[in-house]
Amino acid sequence: MIAIVNTGGANIASVVNAFSRLGIHSELTEDPTTIRKASHVILPGVGAAADSMTRLRQKQLPELIKSLTQPVLGICLGMQLLFDKSDEGDVDCLGILPGTVTEMVPDPRAGITIPHMGWNQLEIQDENLPLLSNLPPSPYVYFVHSYCAPQGDFVKATTSHGVNIPAVVTSNNFMGAQFHPERSGETGATLLRNFVKL
After folding, report:
1. What SS3 state is found at 118?
2. Nearest to 42, CA basis, from 62, 16, 63, 80
3. Do the Cβ atoms of 101 and 83 come closer than 8 Å?
4. Is 182 a catalytic site residue?
5. Is 148 a catalytic residue?
6. pLDDT tens readout for residues 7-18
7. Can you tell me the distance from the alpha carbon of 105 to that of 181, in angstroms, rounded to the nearest whole number?
8. Which of 40, 76, 88, 93 is catalytic?
């Protein structure tokens, strides 16, 4: 069973529906026992980092999430919550990945508009990563975000929006996608299938 952690935010129903379209059972939950027993865990999120971290702390979930050994996928804000800190609300996050999530700076001359919204191509750095297997070359996926993760060895794919933006990150059993697989057509569906196979 796929546990989708209820972090609040507008996109959670679309994540549930994406798994339903794939014929995969998922459950939206805040229950620690359900999350701990799940075969896979999704950390979704659309909204503000501080609000989501407050919700997780109220449910006493941060330490549980950090202790998970099954595959965990953070989507959009959920990916950003995997890092030490976010400048969005100046909040401490889960600390699974090192560094601080920072606000993107608009620069129309460089092609940087905020939010970064719409379809953009992935440049995959790790072709052997199982999460990214069977994707077409430089696939298009759907982004909506105004903050971005730091660079590091944990970055497995990027996208270009005036500057290189981390788009896929990993650390052991923890993975993150800055884009929305549930809104990224067949490419997103393939990524979710890959995740469930892990």
Report:
1. strand
2. 16
3. yes
4. yes
5. no
6. 876 668 889 999
7. 25
8. 76
Give Cα separations from 137 to 80, 82, 100, 134, 187 (angstroms). 25, 27, 30, 9, 11
- Per the listing, tokens 């620690």 go with 32
- Judged by average pLDDT, the poorest of 4-13, 125-134, 135-144, 174-183 is 4-13
pLDDT tens digit sequence for 52-75: 999 999 999 999 999 999 999 999
C-beta separation of 149 from 169 below 8 A? yes
Domains and CATH numbers, the chain: 2-197 (3.40.50.880)
> CA-to-CA distance for 108 and 21, rounded, in angstroms?
38
Q: How many residues does the chain have?
A: 198
Burial of 190 (0-12, 13-18, 19+ CB in 10 A): buried
CA 38 to chain centre: 18
* Catalytic option among 103, 145, 182, 186: 182
Vertex 176, ends 171 and 144: CA angle to 5°? 155
The answer, yes or no, to whether the previous bond of 62 is cis (omega within 30 of 0) is no
Q: Give the C-alpha separation, 84 to 154, whole Å.
A: 14
Q: Residue 180 catalytic?
A: yes
Whole-number Å distance between alpha carbons of 178 and 48: 14
**139's torsion region: left (phi>0), alpha (psi -120 to 50) or beta?**
beta
